[in-house]
Amino acid sequence: MTAPKVLISDALSEAAVQIFKDRGIDVDFQPNLGKDKDKLAEIIGNYDGLAIRSATKATAKILEKANRLKVIGRAGIGVDNVEIPAATAKGIIVMNTPFGNSITTAEHAITMMLSLAREIPAADASTQAGKWEKNRFMGVEITAKTLGVIGCGNIGSIVADRALGLKMKVIAFDPFLSPERAKDLGVEKVELEDIFKRADFITLHTPLTDKTKNIIDAAAIAKMKKGVRIINCARGGLVDENALAEALKSGHVAGAAFDVFSEEPATKNVLFGLPNVICTPHLGASTTEAQENVALQVAEQMSDYLLTGAITNAINFPSITAEEAPKLKPFIELAEKLGSFAGQLTETGITKVTITYEGEVAEMKIKALTSAVLSGLLRPMLGDINVVSAPVIAKERGMVVDEVVRAAESDYESLITLTVTTEKQERSVSGTVYADGKPRLVDIKGIRVDAEFGSSMIYVTNEDKPGFIGKFASLLGDAKVNIATFNLGRHTEGGDAIALVTIDGPAPTEVLEKVQALPQVKQVKALTF
Ligand SMILES: NC(=O)C1=CN([C@@H]2O[C@H](COP(=O)(O)OP(=O)(O)OC[C@H]3O[C@@H](n4cnc5c(N)ncnc54)[C@H](O)[C@@H]3O)[C@@H](O)[C@H]2O)C=CC1
Ligand SMILES: O=C(O)C(=O)COP(=O)(O)O
């Protein structure tokens, strides 16, 4: 196997380069490349992995060219610079490091809050300019003041904890914050309106979504206490900067400290130069400790995936540990092939898919296996589908996907049964993996078989009547089609039967037509795996 190749296109710590090298991965470290989207588009096709921070924009246009790319690793938290649907559609795993820089970012928010309270940057500039303006700067105490935290997840809760240590009263708005967690944190869970009405300082720690965009706008600011101070170390766009600028000018808002902006890099902004505004250039995660944490973590995660298939912290796929990955691999192959078998036989719209996992396989990562079944199933109909995109597409198409997990009831240690319901019929197919690691088909529509998946196969359903097998084999022989394996099965004597043969090379259409014309034959289909 040639070594996978990774491009680091942002200013990650050198620690990442070393990890990739130590793991036997070829690595190109070009810390400024991410800012040059044309250059990135030009070379992205050469890489299996892309490691980034926030400067690289992995847009659909760039990903279009990323034909080898298997994984994007974000050394940090926010993945809003990656077009996840485009990555998912191409089967690219997107992973982040959800905790590596949270303490550092929380500390930045607290630093911003204290700097605002005492106007440190302006006081510093004035003093160093030789002005000694002792009477110009009159700060506020934070002890006993109310801090409103909007978004109390990883970073918000660290901010809350530090603020409590500074003797503030902390109130938090987060629809996903449970009352128990709020109690453990020592914060009062409130509604957004209460934050606006009660807080002396407001700090934002949510992702930027349709719901959170402009969560602080002119109407929200109007409800706030006069003299409120606002801190944003989460994402630009959470606060309407124009509305805030007006409120700063009128004095309704006493100060704002921003690390993130609606447009970045922010070389100009309405907030710049206004009274008591403090700005930093997206430095929330910029400490040696955090950068080392996220670089090491992302490099390890990406290496694990590229070398072993283990998945950690993926935004668009379930996690698979390094221990699980090798055990899961043959079952992923089985799942995908069972899906493909059913998909190639299905000609009408699928309404429901039921996947039953029995025995040992039921203990494995079912979500990953289901994704594999769905990708195999949908690919014959929809083409460009992969394990990452399949569940999203199945959902978009309104398919009901049921997973059933149960103890072994059959002779097999592990059995996966896929039942596909269409508007016209229901079809089931089962498979297992033997000790040799190869996937096998063991049941088709209730008929027992024992067949490997060959790269080219012919599947026939027929009536169990004498004469069929001889004629079928002769038709193949006459057309110089070599049979590699031949599997037969039937329900009952004289009842429904199937033949599944693996042939060398593709199945010629004329042969398929002649087989279809045999009196016992109901359906013939060429299958490829
Ligand atoms: N300035 C910087 O350099 C950095 C910024 N960040 C940003 O900080 C933000 C928070 O990160 P984490 O705490 O790690 O994320 P998280 O996912 O742990 O927490 C986000 C919280 O926001 C809550 N939330 C979602 N929608 C909400 C809504 N409509 N109203 C109120 N709360 C809502 C969620 O329930 C969750 O608890 C992210 O936007 C991230 O990108 C993260 C690291 C560094
Ligand atoms: O981790 C995050 O979400 C951040 O915003 C940090 O961004 P950065 O890696 O410093 O460009």
Overall description:
By secondary structure, the protein is of the alpha/beta class. It has 4 domains: 5-99 and 290-308, NAD(P)-binding Rossmann-like Domain (Rossmann fold, 3-Layer(aba) Sandwich), CATH 3.40.50.720; 102-279, Rossmann fold (3-Layer(aba) Sandwich), CATH 3.40.50.720; 323-452, 60s Ribosomal Protein L30, Chain: A; 454-529, 2-Layer Sandwich (Alpha-Beta Plaits). Helix content is 34%, strand content 24%. It contains 17 helices and 22 strands. It has helices at residues 14-22, 37-43, 60-63, 84-89, 102-118, 120-128, 154-165, 179-185, 192-198, 218-223, 241-250, 288-308, 324-345, 366-382, 390-396, 468-478, 509-516, and strands at residues 5-8, 26-29, 49-52, 71-74, 93-95, 146-150, 169-173, 188-189, 201-204, 228-232, 253-258, 277-279, 350-359, 400-406, 414-422, 426-433, 439-444, 447-452, 456-463, 483-490, 496-503, 521-528. Strands 8-7-6-9-10-11-12 form a 7-stranded parallel beta sheet, sandwiched between helices. It has a 6-stranded mixed beta sheet with strand order 14-13-15-16-17-18. Strands 2-1-3-4-5 form a 5-stranded parallel beta sheet. A hairpin with a 5-residue loop joins strand 16 and strand 17 (439-444). Helix 5 crosses helix 7 (154-165) and helix 13 runs parallel beside helix 14. The longest helix is centred in the middle third of the chain and has 22 residues, at 324-345. The chain binds 1,4-dihydronicotinamide adenine dinucleotide and 2-oxo-3-(phosphonooxy)propanoic acid (HPV). 2-oxo-3-(phosphonooxy)propanoic acid binds next to loops.
